[in-house]
């Protein structure tokens, strides 16, 4: 066996040992299983806790439903949301238009279904980009400490003090293009740049805790580089709490996109968005309230589902709540 393979094998063995030096100690939270006699892991305890929570299953079902709606909208409606006929303006429900038509003669339900794609796309990509920024800043700040931590912590404090919606309005006002792709990319970039601070703080805290563990010290003594330690031993510990925070943030990003589109700052026609439809429905609410209620309900259920799912996962992984 080469020297590199020996070091790698020693690191893996050290990573499986906790502060007591016993195998499996880092994952041992709930004691020993009475069925198998094996140490119970944090993930196993969390899953057993989640299975007993109705709120988890309800929120998960809603998330799956709206994700499928965004991915394959044709499964939920056969009508074309862009097929608008003024003669059907505010017409009663008929055929596949179960909620009637809006002021342009468009199918209200079809537009709400197809509006899920833009809203979830912006929310998911904003959360993904936010996660990349938060992991990078949080890991560098927590692992290296000293002046690196001091500088990055001040950057986090500065960005955290900027009101997200107000800053997003100011920045998106500078985007002159009406191209759907450019508008979507701009909203994603602005939300991610302004919304990564909370996740970065969570990652930083997890990294500071993880780097003091004995298995990290053992890997360092065996000659592992900083990059290898951060990738192999620190990142797995920082990833789980970051995912929980980003799940909740995803719902917030969807709501922020709808707000910006409602104000005419975010997405614009011909893109179909819940925020755009809510604004149009507000203007013509006296003629018919359905075009306002339907997209508002879809938006509220989606945001609530992601926030409830994130809260349930966070509570399940928090040993203090056991």
TrEMBL record:
Pfam families in alphabetical order: BPD_transp_1 (PF00528), OppC_N (PF12911)
Domain of life (superkingdom): Bacteria
Region of interest (Disordered), ranges: 1-40
Domain ABC transmembrane type-1 positions: 116-310
Location within or outside the cell: Cell membrane
Lipid bilayer topology: Multi-pass membrane protein
InterPro entries in UniProt: BP-dependent_transpt_permease, MetI-like, MetI-like_sf, OppC_N
Cross-referenced CDD domains: TM_PBP2
Keyword Transmembrane helix recorded: yes
Entry's family note: Belongs to the binding-protein-dependent transport system permease family.
Name of the protein: ABC transporter permease
């Amino acid at each position: 066996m080469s020297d590199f393979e020996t070091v790698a094998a020693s690191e893996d063995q050290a990573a499986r040992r906790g502060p007591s030096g016993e195998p499996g100690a880092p994952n041992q939270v709930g004691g020993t299983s009475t069925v198998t006699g094996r140490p119970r892991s944090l993930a196993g305890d969390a899953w057993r806790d989640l299975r007993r929570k109705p709120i988890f299953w309800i929120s998960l079902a809603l998330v799956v439903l709206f994700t499928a709606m965004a991915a394959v909208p044709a499964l939920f409606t056969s009508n074309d949301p862009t097929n608008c006929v003024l003669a059907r303006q505010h017409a009663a429900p008929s055929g596949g238009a179960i909620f009637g038509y809006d002021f342009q003669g468009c199918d209200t339900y079809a537009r709400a279904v197809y509006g899920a794609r833009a809203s979830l796309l912006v929310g998911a990509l904003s959360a993904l980009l936010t996660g990349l920024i938060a992991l990078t800043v949080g890991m560098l700040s927590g692992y290296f400490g000293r002046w690196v931590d001091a500088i990055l912590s001040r950057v986090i404090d500065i960005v955290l003090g900027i009101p997200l919606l107000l800053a997003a309005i100011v920045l998106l006002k500078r985007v002159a293009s009406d191209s759907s792709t450019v508008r979507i990319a701009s909203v994603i970039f602005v939300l991610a740049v302004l919304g990564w601070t909370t996740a970065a703080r969570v990652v930083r805290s997890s990294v500071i805790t993880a780097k003091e563990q004995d298995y990290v010290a053992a890997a360092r003594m065996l000659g592992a580089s900083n990059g290898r330690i951060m990738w192999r031993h620190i990142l797995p510990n920082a990833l789980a709490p970051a995912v929980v925070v980003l799940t909740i943030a995803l719902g917030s990003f969807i709501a922020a996109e709808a707000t910006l589109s409602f104000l005419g700052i975010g997405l614009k026609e011909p893109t179909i968005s819940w925020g755009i439809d809510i604004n149009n429905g507000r203007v013509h609410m006296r003629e018919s309230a359905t075009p306002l209620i339907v997209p508002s309900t879809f938006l509220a259920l989606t945001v609530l589902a992601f926030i409830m799912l994130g809260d349930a996962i966070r509570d399940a992984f928090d040993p203090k709540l056991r």
